[in-house]
Known about the structure:
alpha+beta
Amino acid sequence: xxxxxxxxxxxxxxxxxxxxxxxxxxxxxxxxxxxxxxxxxxxxxxxxxxxxxxxxxxxxxxxxxxxxxxxxxxxxxxxxxxxxxxxxxxxxxxxxxxxxxxxxxxxxxxxxxxxxxxxxxxxxxxxxxxxxxxxxxxxxxxxxxxxxxxxxxxxxxxxxxxxxxxxxxxxxxxxxxxxxxxxxxxxxxxxxxxxxxxxxxxxxxxxxxxxxxxxxxxxxxxxxxxxxxxxxxxxxxxxxxxxxxxxxxxxxxxxxxxxxxxxxxxxxxxxxxxxxxxx
Length: 279
């Protein structure tokens, strides 16, 4: 307290100046309409700018919530754009595949970890068994393109075996003629924007620009866009053709994905497990 009084007594002239200066401004503004108008306008401008910046900051803090809601809403819009029927909630979007008459739901999930520089790339999402996620479920990109398959599942998280993995193979077709093939990545080219379609019958001709989509024989809904052919008709030693394509999925920017839940998956696996290998 003693130091405070010493400080005030040492700078008493300055404090008196501030007090009288403030009183003078107050009396001037109060008794003169012009000065009062200018002051109010200036004050409103300052306060408005402060509120605007505060709102920008609040919007920034809420970006995570906004992104989550947009991802769920995009799942609904995606089903509509594909000409499918939405009948469920914003979290799970029920989809009826008009090609194979199979029921699916899309579940939006946020990518919390992603690798793209390895030979075998894995990503992690923030959905798990409590959300109905199971091993083997297909995963697609929000805009267009395939991502991979669910690998390991915990209560609240799951890992995805990315398309950018040596063990990932996806049944695909050429959109123009439904010719079957297998989609693989990393066969001599580890560019994350490119993949290969293999095992295409050698009587089928591919052309630059041909669109590749998922087939009706994969865990994916039929017709999901995969990529476009850039190098067609590469001969192999097994009487099949292969081709290189540019992928629609940009794995370097993935923030959200859609997990595809196939309603009849368990029934189909149980039935097919009854088939003996040599039959």
